[in-house]
Specification:
This protein is α/β, with parallel strands linked by helices and 354 residues long. The protein has 15 helices and six strands. Strands 3-2-1-4-5-6 form a six-stranded parallel beta sheet, with helices on both faces. The longest helix is centred in the middle third of the chain and has 20 residues, at 146-165. 54% of the residues are buried. Pathway: Nucleoside biosynthesis; alpha-ribazole biosynthesis; alpha-ribazole from 5,6-dimethylbenzimidazole: step 1/2.
Length: 354
Amino acid sequence: MTEAELMQLLAAITPPDDTACAAAHAHWASLAKPLGGLGALETLLEDAAALTGKAQFDFSRRAVAVLCADNGVVAQGISQTDQSVTRAVAENLAARRTSVCRMAQTVHCDVLPVDMGIAGAPVPGLRDCRVAAGTADFTKGPAMTRAEAVEAIGRGIALTRQLAAEGYGLVATGEMGIGNTTTSSAVAAVLLAQPVQTMTGRGAGLSDAGLARKADAIRRGIACNVPNPDDVLDVLGKLGGFDIAGLCGMFLGGALAGVPVLMDGFISGVAALCAVRLCPAAAKAVFASHCSTEPAARLVLEVLGKKPLLTAGLHLGEGTGAVASIPLWDMALAVYEGCYSFAEGGIAPYTPQC
C-alpha cells in the first residue's frame, strides 16, 4: 500500500451513525429495568450501533488476531529475554496452547496468530502479513522506513476487512513481540508529549536496573531519530514496531468495515491512539476492554476517551484482556435481545427524573 492509497482509505471513514445509536438507546429504554441500569454494557451496544449503522447485532463469530513481530531495540537489554521467545510463543499460538488460546476457547472465539515481522524464517501456522524479518534497533536509526510503516498499517486494514468479509462481527486485538512495551512507550511518549519515565513500565517484569536501561534506550531512540509528534507515520516508522503498525491498521479497518475492534492493553491502546491521530473518525471502531497495569495505560485510555469494562490487574498481552471482556458483550446482547419490555410486562415506563 502506498501512502496516497492509505490517505484515500482514511478519507472514506465516515462519522458515527447518530440515528442508529439513538435507536439502540431507545430500545434499551423500552426494556423493563432501571434506565441505564446496565451502565457501560448499554453504551457499548449503542456505540456498536453508531459504528455499524444498525441497532441489531450479530457477534456470534468472533476472533482474536494476535500480531507477532520482533523489535531490534531488544539488543539494548531492555527485556528479560531475547527475541527467540517471540518465535517460541508464536509456535505455541499456532498450536493453540497459549493463555489467550485457552481463554478464547471458553468464549467460542477463534484465534488468528499473524506474522507481521518475526525474525528469521516464517513460523508455520501463522497468517502471513510479514513486512520484514523484524525491525532495526531504533537507538541507532529508524526502526523501519516510512513505507514499511504504511505497508504494515495497510496489512492490518486488510486483515480486519477480510475478517469482516468472512462473517466475523467482533474482532479482538492481541500482540506478541519481545520488546514491544519499549516501542509502545516510545511512540506514546512522543505522541502525548510526556516524559519517558511516565510512559515506561516494567513490561514482563524488569528489575530496577532493567527499567533504567529501557527508559535510557527510549530516550536515546528519540534523540537519535527526532520524530515529528504531529506526523504519526514518522513516529511509527522511527520508533514503532510492525505489530503496533498492524494493530493501528486493524482499528482503521474496523472503522471501514463497520466491525467493533477490541483494544487489549497498553500496546494495542497505543496502536489505537495512532489510528485516531491518523483519522479521528476511526475512534468509532475502538472499544476498550480493560486497563492494563502498565503505568501509562490509563493515560492512553483517557486521551482516547474510552472507559474499560474490566480492571483486573491484567498485563499479559496476547489479547487476553480483550478476550476476557467478550462475555460482557454476550451478556449485554442477551438482555438487549431477550429482556421483556415495559409494555410486555404491563408496567408504566420509567422516565428520567433528573
